[in-house]
Amino acid sequence: MTSPRPDPATLKTLADCRAGIDAIDGELMILLAERQAHVAQVVGIKAREGVAAAAPTRAAAVIERTRQLALDVGVDADLAEALWQTMIDHFITKEEAVLGKGGSDL
Ligand SMILES: O=C(O)C(=O)C[C@]1(C(=O)O)C=C[C@@H](O)C=C1
Predict the structure, then answer these.
(1) How many domains is the chain built from?
(2) Which one of 45, 46, 58, 101 has the largest count of C-beta atoms within 10 Å of its C-beta?
(3) Would residue 62 count as lying in a domain?
């Protein structure tokens, strides 16, 4: 169980700020592992249904949604896009290792 995070504006020392950053990184990593598990599940479904690893239409929608989510909470949309593009490219490579490059863009 994680403890509630302090308001960053109340942090006075570099060590406290870095401890907070480390805690947030830990939580982000848990969410990334959960997202990765969802993508792993996608691979079996795509194999059954003949859907391509690379899904450009879906990838573009994910990126567009991510840019909007970033703007909604005051995160730089270009940063969010770069992070998500890196993640999606990684998952396409992993999916193609199993599925190959064929299939439909669904
Ligand atoms: O939605 C899919 O088809 C996925 O495989 C997931 C995902 C993603 O990481 O969001 C990865 C690769 C695809 O090109 C599109 C999206």
Answers:
(1) 1
(2) 46
(3) yes
Ligand 1 center to 44 CA (angstroms): 13
Domain span holding position 94? 12-99
Minimum CA distance residue for ligand 1 atom 1: 58
Number of C-beta neighbours around residue 96 at 10 A: 16
pLDDT tens-digit series, residues 21-48: 999 999 999 999 999 999 999 999 999 9
Task: Indicate whether residue 47 lines ligand 1 (CB < 6 A).
Answer: no
Tokens 């899904």 — which residue?
Answer: 55
Q: How many CB atoms lie within 10 A of CB 63?
A: 17
Give the CATH number, domain containing residue 81: 1.20.59.10
Confirm or reject: Cβ of 77 under 6 Å from ligand 1. Answer: no
Q: Are 24 and 77 in contact (CB under 8 A)?
A: no
Q: What ipTM was estimated for this complex? A: 0.98
Nearest CA to ligand 1 atom 7: 88
